[in-house]
Amino acid sequence: MVAVPQAVDQFANAEMLESLGVARHVPKEQATPHTLRAAALALLADPDVPLRATRIRQSMTTEGGTPHAADLIEAELLPRVPSLPEC
Predict the structure, then answer these.
(1) Better-scored residue on pLDDT, 86 or 30
(2) Residue pair 3/24 in contact by the 8 Å Cβ criterion
(3) pLDDT score at 63
(4) What sign has the CA pseudo-torsion 9, 15, 18, 23?
(5) What is the Cα 37 distance to its own chain's centre?
(6) CA 33 to each of CA 40, 44, 79: distance values in angstroms, whole numbers, following the listed order
(7) DSSP codes joined into one string, 12-48
(8) Is 0.70 surpassed by the pTM of this model?
(9) Which of 45, 46, 54, 84 is most buried (most C-beta within 10 Å)?
(10) How confident is the model at residue 3 (pLDDT cuts 50, 70, 90)?
(11) Torsion sign across C-alpha atoms 42, 44, 48, 51
């Protein structure tokens, strides 16, 4: 991915993807055809990018996704929710 963030969380996402080694972050003010092409070619030339992407995909597959996230949130919230009176 060549990330050209423009607003809000896109900046952090671009930095994270670049730190994982699966993207190049190009600041918007530097996004010219030349810099975008150079970033894309650099990614294509890096033989480790597919390996990193595969590792990330495998890790995400085993993390449990949305159901696991919901379980974690509920585990934090349930002890704090007051009991409802019985009808």
Answers:
(1) 30
(2) yes
(3) 85
(4) positive
(5) 22
(6) 11, 16, 54
(7) HHHHHHHHTTS-EE--GGG--HHHHHHHHHHHHH-TH
(8) no
(9) 46
(10) very high
(11) positive
Structure tokens at 2: 């060549």
Place of tokens 């190049």: 24
Structure tokens at 20: 């994982």
Structure tokens at 61: 């597959």
Residues in Cβ contact with 67 at an 8 Å cutoff, skipping those fewer than 6 apart: none
Instruction: Please name the amino acid found at residue 64.
Output: G
Cross-strand bridge partners of residue 2? 24
C-alpha separations of 21 from 13, 49, 86, 87 in Å: 12, 6, 54, 57
Give residue-wise pLDDT tens across range 32-79.
999 999 999 999 999 999 999 999 999 888 888 889 889 999 888 876
Tokens 């995909």 label which residue? 57
